[in-house]
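so my prof wants the structure for this chain in the tokens format not the other one, which i didnt know existed until like an hour ago. anyway here's the sequence
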Amino acid sequence: MHAPRLVVTKAHSSLRDEAAAVAELVVQLNAADASAVLFFCSPHYDLVKLGRALAQAFPAPLAGCTTAGQIGEHGYVDGGITAVSLSSAELRVKPYLISSLTDSTQATEVGYRAAVDLVRGAPAKGFGLLLIDGLSNAEERIAAALSEALADIPVVGGSAADDLMNTRACVYYEGEFLSSVAVFVLFDTTLPFATFKVQHVVPGQQKLVITEADSEQRIVYEINGKQASLEYAARIGIDRALLDPEVCAANPLLLSTGGEHFVRGVRAVNPDGSLSFYCAVEVGLVLSLGTPISPLAALEAGFATIDQRVPQPAIVIGFDCVLRRREFERRGEQAAVGAFLASHQVVGFCTYGEQFDALHMNQTFAAVALGS
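here's what i got, hopefully its the right format
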């Protein structure tokens, strides 16, 4: 019997002490010879202590971030650290820091460097993961710049989160948890892989036009010439006082372009009646009121397609919007969806947004399947 081309080992620790949690991961992962270790953690740790402990414990290339929940062997989980080690002679992994998100210059430079590094491999084949501060309001700019520089190298990613506290989301790089940064992780491999995304929302007939907004802060003040929250609530058919992020997640707003539909998720309903968004918004944008369909049916269809491209993946690295999970909780579907993800080898986290090639979106499951 042939040895597997890729060995995947999963781990989780719910211990609250940073050193003890990392020690538990070390025992579970046995990652001394790993090609890479990925982790996704609660923001409630002392991140200075945790960063140091992780750097000392794992000699392999290491990438991760804070989250709004993780996905692991038992589906969705809150708190602690979920990790996975990947070991293969056919896999090389390299993280690149993007320390400035104020413009796209450094992201473009990192994209070119990564593309050159990949070409130096033999053969040149690979994909990238993007982990970015989910409170930076910079995902669109960084994802677009990276994708343009990388040309045909596919990218998936997630916006680091902080359990919906909206105070500080962090990405790990070389022993430190940093905010206002991104880390691009290049996977140079001859293993089979495929990127994909899944949504469980379809556009409806109602149209909402943004007529006043602050695009830099992602705040919408008016929709259809009326106060944003009042008009949104009226279109849903509820009283304005009942409008909150959970109701918004159940009645998502979609941007349609190029025959595809992308959710623009609401982060907060503000006291002045405006709406804060997780994604870019601007005056003149035409959105439609979406209708959710069965999330399990959507996932089954998405994974059936990916199984044809990468039969029985050894791991699926997944980025799942926290708005999806909140909706699943409200509808009593979280356990079933989490069990489906676990049974399909998904390891990942609940995000403040998802990246897929040049695009940033919400209420989406974006992923890469890696075969053995």
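also thought this was worth mentioning. The two ends are 14 Å apart (CA to CA).
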